[in-house]
């Protein structure tokens, strides 16, 4: 057994190996069947045993949410906001516990986990403030009286979140859903169940009533049951495009609303006049942070041919200097991939690229020596020598791999970027305002960045993609509140 457990807080050490049931109607229900979650940095460590949910568990959670809905809907919105503000304070108080749990079960470096917790706390504060701001509109009437629009909650909503941001993504979904009066059934990833359990504890302690926020653990079977349940009025999903498409097909049969935040293949463009040092630093952050397991990672970089060699050297130097290791250990900057299959997927992409003539400028291998031998570690990798039509340049790898492709000019770079099937994020590095404005006007991505990384997003701004990256509305900012509410037109005459 490795020694990384000694880095954990006592609260987490006490949970090691426990059996966790579903959280339904304010009660932790003893699980009938469980699955194990292991530490991806050392698979010998069992994080815990978690309930394996199915259709019956989902039905019980939906029934609890449906029963709780009328009272929660009728709770004044400002009061719901106050509960969310208490949740933000409790989350801040338990931030280190949740950050360590996150790193323990899904692998990211502890510094990254702490940043995620800060962001989740801030978003809860932001949404809580909307409790006294978000409302309807008043319009002139054609006769004596008034016309106005009110926003009503949809009812029971299903939230399905991935493992790579296991606190922030559920908060981004659940906070606006709860603020606007909906009740929630949350299905977390089977790779990050412990943080989901801790989030449920935070909401309950903040005063979210029983049945308003429910958690069903499990794999795709639980997710499919949630999407198909007739009493679930809306589904918010973050994950792969293939799963998002399937969810949309099922939900559309009964006219349930869907919000899909899906995959990304995000291009960064580096022009000849760019600050190359800044661009390389940003690409290293965007490509290798969170082990590259993020939908807005910049895994494709289109570099002006005249500065290609210089930029490549700067990026390789930064990638080679990154310390790969157990995220709970001091100084680790790149943690393991989440599962063995994820490691095999990343390795497979690189080996295919190598076979097709790619030059591996750094990395390009599984790291399994010494302290890394029991984890899913892959070296930060920079590839060149492939055309933009190669799968490594078009498909989402979801790992610490960045491919560099030379381009003649901005026009050529925009053409390559817009030809990608995804449309989540992009970035441009230049000192020329005209180039920047042309890029913003023409790029087909939901997020465009000038002289900053594709991973930059701020809580007050909408988040989401175009094409195969997003469907059904944006997350974050005030835009997300439209998804969780139905407008009702009121004609009042006197």
Report Rg: 23 Å
Terminal CA distance reads 76 Å
Sheet-strand content, in percent, reads 15-25%
Q: Name the poorly predicted regions.
A: 1-5
- Which range best describes the helical content: under 10%, 10-25%, 25-40%, 40-55%, 55-70% or over 70%? 25-40%
The outline comes out as globular
Structural class given helices, strands, pairing? Answer: alpha/beta
Q: How can the largest sheet be summarized?
A: 7 strands, mixed
Explain this structure to me?
The protein has 494 residues and is α/β, with parallel strands linked by helices. The protein is built from 16 helices and 25 strands. Strands 15-18-19-14-13-21-22 form a seven-stranded mixed β-sheet, with helices on both faces. A six-stranded mixed β-sheet has the order 10-9-8-11-12-24, sandwiched between helices. Strands 1-5-4 form a three-stranded mixed β-sheet, with helices on one face. β18, α13 and β19 (401-407) form a beta-alpha-beta unit. α3 (77-93) runs antiparallel to α5 and α10 (276-288) packs across α11 (308-321). It starts with 9 loop residues before the first helix and ends with a strand.
